[in-house]
Amino acid sequence: MNLWYNISENNKEIWPKNQGGLNLKRIIELIGMWDLIIFYTVNDKIKSDISDKLIPYFTEFGSWWFTTFACLLTILLGKEKTRSTGIEAAASLVAGSLLVQLLKKKINRERPYLAILNVNTFNKLWKDHSFPSGHTAAAFEVAVSMSFGYPNLYLLFIGLATMVGVSRIYVGMHYPTDVLIGAALGSSMSILTHILI
To answer: In this predicted structure, what is the pLDDT of residue 117?
Structure first.
């Protein structure tokens, strides 16, 4: 069951039926409408042979193996500043991953390719819940932590994390709201970890 918005079976009717004043229901309908519009734009309208080859690779920057490897590498091989940055990133990653998994189970949102029609997908299909995006959260947990340690490189770190989020929509695994909340959770977890450690 999709708790975010109602769409017709053929996905043509994405405009909210209630055109009255703004209330909570109307706001949720508008968010759902824009969620679908942006999803289909990223997932289908910008497709090309080049983007089909390049964009899916960005997903791996938010994978558990890459983010864990990045943290361990900085902790084990880095000197004082790099090591402490790696410890912050790892702490943020562990806490954030637990929160993301808790929210996924609680909210129980289906992935786009399971819930709506005409979704472009690639080789790897995740079957767990969609909200929030764990890849995006993990990418931002590491990126924001690294940005605290190396502020001159923050554009690179945040740019890569942003591309992880875009790639998750592009490969049909997440809605834009999944990605947006994943980025907000990941960033918040890193900021909180930075303050506490």
So the answer is: 84
b/e sequence 77-92, b meaning 16+ C-beta within 10 Å: eeeeebebbbbbbbbb
173 closest CA partner among 140, 136, 138, 130: 130
Estimate the crossing angle of helix 134-149 against helix 80-107, to 10 degrees: 160
Residue at token pair 């229901």:
25
- What the block records as the tokens of 11 is 């996905």
Q: What is the pLDDT of residues 161-191, one digit of tens each?
A: 999 999 999 999 999 999 999 999 999 999 9
Average pLDDT, the chain: 87
> Distance between CA 140 and CA 133 in Å, rounded?
11
DSSP 36-47: HHHHHIIIIIT-
Q: Within 13 Å and on the Cβ side, how many CA atoms surround 42?
A: 24
Tell me the backbone φ, ψ of residue 135, rounded to 5 degrees.
Answer: -60, -45
